[in-house]
Amino acid sequence: MKPNLEKFLRRAMSAHQDGRFQEAEKIYRSILRSHPKNGVANHNLGVLKVGLGKASLALPHFQTALEADVNQHQYWISYIDALIKLNQISRASKLLMQGRKRGLHGDAVDHLERQLSSSAKHDLVPSERASELISLYKQGDFNKALDIGIKLFEQFPND
Q1: Burial class (CB in 10 A: 0-12, 13-18, 19+), 72
Q2: DSSP state of 106
Q3: Structural domains of the chain in order of their starting residue, each with its CATH number
Q4: C-alpha distances in angstroms, 46 versus 24, 49, 66, 94, 138?
Q5: pLDDT at 120
Q6: What is the Cα–Cα distance from 8 to 28, expressed in whole angstroms?
Q7: How confident is the model at residue 71 (pLDDT cuts 50, 70, 90)?
Q8: Is the pLDDT higher at 121 or at 80?
Q9: If both were cysteines, with which of 45, 56, 65, 156 could 39 make a disulfide (CB 3.0 to 4.6 Å apart)?
Q10: d(CA 97, CA 30)
Q11: CB 73 within 8 A of CB 106
């Protein structure tokens, strides 16, 4: 890695760790203007976005980081975790399987697998509630259907 690039990455990571998120983002973006495929900058910008509650904005950065270095386990873990946070369970499961095939392992990976397993079990509930909502709608019970619809939307905003 070039010394200048390393220096900027250290500054960005320091700002990030110190809670100076706008400064960190500005530096990461500056790095990415000249090195758009840089795995570290993309990954860390993704982590920053997830930390700010903007996981959907992190996904392209995690994807680019992973493409830059598929052997960096943390890139896989962060990407899968963001997908789980966005309730993109199927996509997260597929990515975890791909990672496992490439040797992804460890406690963090096992934890993600447990989260995915738990989420898969909970996915049955929304479909049952959706069926109930449709049935109520067809029966003309719009108030109850609306109540269920609102609850489902609040519980699963990304579905």
Answers
A1: middle
A2: S
A3: 3-105 (1.25.40.10)
A4: 12, 5, 11, 20, 44
A5: 63
A6: 8
A7: very high
A8: 80
A9: 65
A10: 34
A11: yes
Tell me, what amino acid is at 91? R
Would you state the structure tokens that stand for residue 84, as one six-digit string?
């789980």
Tens digits of residue pLDDT in 27-67: 999 999 999 999 999 999 999 999 999 999 999 999 999 99
- What is the C-alpha end-to-end distance of the chain, expressed in Å? 41
Q: Of 124 and 15, which is predicted with more confidence?
A: 15
53: which DSSP letter? T
Phi-psi label, residue 19: left if phi above 0, alpha if psi -120 to 50, beta otherwise: left
The rounded mean pLDDT for the chain is: 90
Which is higher by pLDDT, 31 or 120?
31
Half-sphere exposure (CA, 13 Å, Cβ side) for 121? 5
Instruction: Classify 91 as helix, strand or coil.
Output: helix
Q: How far apart are CA 78 and CA 45, in angstroms?
A: 11
Predicted TM-score (pTM) of the model is: 0.75
How many whole angstroms separate alpha carbon 68 and alpha carbon 79? 13
Percent composition of the chain: helix, strand, coil (DSSP 3-state, to 5): 80, 0, 20
